[in-house]
Amino acid sequence: MTDQNLIASITQIESRIFLIRGQKVMLDADLVELYEVETKVLNQAVKRNLERFPEDFMFQLTADEYAALMSQSDTSSLRSQIVTSNNTTGRGGRRSLPYASTEQGVSMLSSVLRSDLAIQVNIAIMRAFVQLRQMLASNAELSQKLVALEKKYDIKFRAVFEAIHELMTPLEPKKKRPIGFAPW
User: Fold this and answer.
1) Measuring CA to CA, which residue among 136, 139, 134 is closest to residue 167?
2) What global pTM score does this model have?
3) Is residue 31 part of a domain?
4) Could you report the per-residue pLDDT of 26-84, keeping only the tens digit for each?
5) Are the C-beta atoms of residues 9 and 124 closer than 8 Å to each other?
6) With 0-12 CB in 10 A as exposed, 13-18 as middle and 19+ as buried, what is 146?
7) Is residue 53 part of a domain?
8) Cα gap 42→140, rounded to integer Å
């Protein structure tokens, strides 16, 4: 894998990492796609090795968590995966709430799936988690340095520091209105 492909795959993986219950997690639908296995295969591997997946490694989302996740604007690929889900009732969509895997849970998945692709995907996912952790740490360091500078300089620069703080604050995702013919 070239450096360019590695960077692209890490970027794609980072966009599939969500913050749920204060933990960075990946959803089962994204993991299935990355590992190139069926959801059934992934679920069976987990069920056969439940002792390897305690609650802090993998957990099922609540209905409220799932609804909040679906309302975020950057989950369009997740929605398309869920809408095109195939089930026996012919209604489409998920039959159960998704599972979320923490970094440790993802690491454990590669040991139960036992394929060369699972190993390679797991390495890329671990690198993405590490890169996110480093970005968060550097942002914290930057914030500390900014606070120190604020204390050092007088009121003339207060507006500049306030503008910098505002730029560093992440934007809240816009809420999208559902598409369809129903009255919203």
Assistant:
1) 139
2) 0.60
3) yes
4) 999 999 998 888 888 898 999 999 999 999 999 999 999 998 888 874 544 444 444 43
5) yes
6) middle
7) yes
8) 36
